[in-house]
């Protein structure tokens, strides 16, 4: 069985106040062209279809057109909600859409039933597990350990009636421990949302969403396909792609990628004002690309943005890199923030502010507040 793995479309996103809708329309058409050439049996969309829980109308129209085109090609579509999506909105119309072979993950209620598709070698069970936090799982299994994301995911997977003699594919949306993140992704302090890849061992292939860089996470059977477009300048050097997965008769997996070419690239350039505005410089690349320019002039250039946009109409971001910008210091201990839990950070803050550590009762209260805030985040 051949699968096309997509995720993190983020339809409706605005990047540095630029609407990406035209670029997203273009790249979805390119994906349809690839589907026409590759003839997958199913398309997996692993969450973050939209950039916001309440997406703009034009983003909804665009995705409706994309789904309709996939259905017109008689392709099975299996889709879940991500942390940017509203699970209820994504699940709307799921019973009707099943007749068009579009399968939407329902709002998690403690049970996950497989969608079964057939190929020449027999059945393949697809398990659609939307983005989950520990509180979502704890609500249905209060007697089980669900304090961490790994425990919560293990609990959710443990309650699936997985037949180990069949090929099983999981579509989900989580941070897997060790995956490389970009600045465009939601990063939690202390890595509290990390999931151990071992949780996914019962599955022939796990189609992940959430991380924007295409990469394996614990072997090629657990994979992020990445975003179809670059959504931050930290992704400027990446090559975006579609992941194609072929499942063999006995559970063998072949993974390959097909590059995507955007309507406009996302580029970073640096140099003095005279250097970056010289014809010999800007003729080396597409002037219509979305650009982050870093000027190295010691003095600010008056109306630099306006002047640069006469050469680079899609200038998104302007920075300076000179002696003045190097004067700022760093906050003591800030480099260790990502390695500490929220509780450890608050402990340090409290002691620095009050000159003494928290009492057990205060610590217990803060721990409950942190958990409540973390689980309520979108």
Short description:
The protein is of the alpha/beta class.
Number of strands: 19
CATH class of the largest domain: Alpha Beta
Strand order of the largest sheet: 6-5-4-1-15-16
User: Which percent band covers the strand fraction?
Assistant: 15-25%
Radius of gyration: 23 Å
Order of SSEs, N→C? EEEHEHEHHEEEHHEEEEEEEEEHHEHEHH
Could you say what the CATH topology of the largest domain is called? Purple Acid Phosphatase, chain A, domain 2
Q: Quickly count the domains.
A: 3
CATH architecture of the largest domain: 4-Layer Sandwich
**Count of runs of 4 or more consecutive helical residues:** 11
Mean pLDDT across residues: 89
Percent helix, as a range, is 25-40%
Q: What is the 3D form? A: globular
Instruction: Outline the biggest β-sheet.
Output: 6 strands, mixed
Q: Alpha-carbon distance between the termini?
A: 35 Å
Structural class: alpha/beta
List unreliable stretches of 5+ residues.
329-335
CATH superfamily of the largest domain: Metallo-dependent phosphatases
